[in-house]
Design brief:
Length: 260
C-alpha cells in the first residue's frame, strides 16, 4: 500500500503565520503537523509516502530530506496546483495496482490509525471500494456531510450544505482501492475529489468513525486549540532540523496564540 499526502496548500486563512511558514509544517506540541501524518501512514501499513509540494516547497523539501524519512518519503513538486483528484492522477506511476491512503495533510487528527486500515482490509462491507474516515462536527455547514445506511455505507453526500442532514463529516482521509484510482486516471477532466469522485461512488464507500481528535487547523484560533490536545510523543533531540525548527519565529508566534 502507498500513501499520498497532500501538503501543497497556501494556508491563506492562517495568515500571518503562513507568511513565514507553510501550513503543513505548523507546530503542534512542538512537532510539525506533517511529521504526525508520515508516522500515521506508516502505522496504516504504507511502504512509501508521496508528498505533493507547492507553497514554500523548499522549506517542505528540507523537512522531508531528514535521514529519518529516507527511502520512505518521495516529494513531488506541483508547479500548478492540480486539485486532489488531479494530484492522485498525476502520481499514478507510484502506486499502479495498489491501494492508496489519500490524506489532506493539513488537518490535525489523532485516532487508532491501525484500526482504520484494518477495517478497510478486513471488515469493510462487501462491494465497497473506498473507506472514508468520518468525525462528528459542531459546524456541519463548513464540512462535507455524509448520510449512511445501517452498515456504514455512504448513501448521500453534501459539500458544505446550508441545511445539513447530519453531523457526520468527511475527515478527508481515505483508503482507495485500485478501481477508484483507475476511474480518476481515465477522466482527465476530474480534479475535485469531494464534488466529482465521491458522488460517483455513492453506495460503494465504507465509513470508519474517528472518536478521537479531528480538527481543521486552518485559522490561528483553531491552531491554538490544537496545542492544548494532549499527545504523547518523545522528541528526537539529535535531529538537527528539529533543533532549528524549535528556534524558528513561528514557534514563538504559535505559543503566543495559546496564551490569549
Amino acid at each position: 500500500m502507498k500513501a499520498l499526502l497532500l501538503a501543497a496548500g497556501f494556508g491563506t486563512r492562517l495568515k500571518p503565520l503562513t507568511d513565514i511558514w507553510p501550513k503543513c509544517l505548523m507546530p503542534i506540541g512542538g512537532v510539525p503537523l506533517l511529521e504526525y501524518w508520515i508516522d500515521a501512514v506508516r502505522l496504516m501499513g504504507a511502504d512509501r509516502a508521496i508528498v505533493n509540494t507547492h507553497y514554500m516547497a523548499d522549506v517542505v523539501d528540507a523537512f522531508l530530506a531528514r535521514p529519518k524519512f529516507e527511502e520512505f518519503v518521495h516529494p513531488v513538486y506541483e508547479g500548478e496546483l492540480l486539485g486532489t483528484a488531479g494530484t492522485l492522477r498525476a502520481n499514478r506511476e507510484h502506486y499502479r495496482n495498489e491501494a492508496v491512503v489519500l490524506v489532506h495533510a493539513d488537518n490535525w487528527c489523532v485516532c487508532d490509525f491501525r484500526a482504520f486500515a484494518d477495517y478497510h482490509r478486513c471488515n469493510r462491507p462487501e462491494g465497497t471500494v473506498m473507506t472514508m474516515m468520518t468525525f462528528t462536527t459542531d459546524t456541519p455547514e463548513s464540512c462535507g456531510i455524509i448520510e449512511q445506511d445501517g452498515g456504514g455505507v455512504v448513501v448521500g453526500y453534501q459539500e458544505k450544505p446550508s441545511h445539513p442532514k447530519s453531523t457526520h463529516a468527511n475527515a478527508a482521509v481515505y483508503i482507495l482501492e485500485p478501481e477508484v484510482v483507475k476511474w480518476v486516471v481515465e477522466r482527465p477532466d476530474v480534479s475535485d475529489f469531494s464534488t466529482q469522485v465521491i458522488p460517483h461512488f455513492i453506495g460503494r464507500i465504507a465509513t470508519w468513525h474517528n472518536d478521537g481528535i479531528h480538527r481543521d487547523i486552518g485559522t490561528p484560533e483553531s491552531l491554538a486549540v490544537a496545542q492544548r490536545d494532549k499527545v504523547s510523543r518523545i522528541a528526537d533531540t539529535d535531529d538537527a532540523w528539529l533543533q532549528v525548527f524549535h528556534q524558528h519565529p513561528v514557534q514563538r508566534k504559535v505559543n503566543q496564540l495559546v496564551c490569549f
